[in-house]
Amino acid sequence: PGDQEAGELGLAAVPGRQAAFRQGLEAAVNYARAVGCPRIHVMAGRVPLGTDRAAVAGEMETTFIENLKYTADLLSQEDMIGLLEPINSRITDPCYYLNTPHQAAAILEKVGRPNLKLQLDLFHCQIMDGNLSRNLETYFPLIGHIQIAQVPGRHEPDSPGELNFPYIFELLESLGYTGYVGCEYAPKGDTLEGLGWLRSYWESRGLQHGGTSKAAK
């Protein structure tokens, strides 16, 4: 994440911070290796304060691509995946450089490395672009991780909001998604109580707690 006290939120696309980015990446790899985690979120970072986004877009993209190539080479030695997550600039962070799946897909295409993927947070995607079904279908080949939260409150999937998560989960299954779905939300209360939505979802699918089939028992 860089120097968060100084207002940084990632370094991969920030010009002049390449050395610090590489140090941070190496530390992240060490942590990931220690806990057996094969995926690392490579945070793009914010447009520097006092600069116009359009004016620095080209330089930031060049820096991002350069750092991502370095990242892909390093992670390939560890059999790890680097993930790019667009973060919405309408609510969460107006200064974040990478803010739409389309932008992330274009960057991934220019870098052209198979061990770099899209981390698609449906909360951010809905706020910036909507059209979730088509976006999931379009970008599915690039997706390395999915995260969820209800919109606009960023709470549990069954809290009041815009997204129909039972439909979305079935769509992910139909597309053949076999990865994890990260609960990137702020619980409205107690964490375990907040996971009631998952128990209800399992029961609606004829599954027991833990996702096992009742028929198999």
TrEMBL record:
<feature type="domain" description="Xylose isomerase-like TIM barrel">
    <location>
        <begin position="10"/>
        <end position="200"/>
    </location>
</feature>
<feature type="active site" description="Proton donor/acceptor">
    <location>
        <position position="184"/>
    </location>
</feature>
<protein>
    <recommendedName>
        <fullName>Putative hydroxypyruvate isomerase</fullName>
        <ecNumber>5.3.1.22</ecNumber>
    </recommendedName>
</protein>
<dbReference type="InterPro" id="IPR036237">
    <property type="entry name" value="Xyl_isomerase-like_sf"/>
</dbReference>
<dbReference type="InterPro" id="IPR050417">
    <property type="entry name" value="Sugar_Epim/Isomerase"/>
</dbReference>
<dbReference type="InterPro" id="IPR013022">
    <property type="entry name" value="Xyl_isomerase-like_TIM-brl"/>
</dbReference>
<dbReference type="GO" id="GO:0046487">
    <property type="term" value="P:glyoxylate metabolic process"/>
</dbReference>
<dbReference type="GO" id="GO:0008903">
    <property type="term" value="F:hydroxypyruvate isomerase activity"/>
</dbReference>
<comment type="function">
    <text>Catalyzes the reversible isomerization between hydroxypyruvate and 2-hydroxy-3-oxopropanoate (also termed tartronate semialdehyde).</text>
</comment>
<dbReference type="InterPro" id="IPR026040">
    <property type="entry name" value="HyI-like"/>
</dbReference>
<dbReference type="Pfam" id="PF01261">
    <property type="entry name" value="AP_endonuc_2"/>
</dbReference>
<feature type="active site" description="Proton donor/acceptor">
    <location>
        <position position="85"/>
    </location>
</feature>
<keyword id="KW-0413">Isomerase</keyword>
<comment type="similarity">
    <text>Belongs to the hyi family.</text>
</comment>
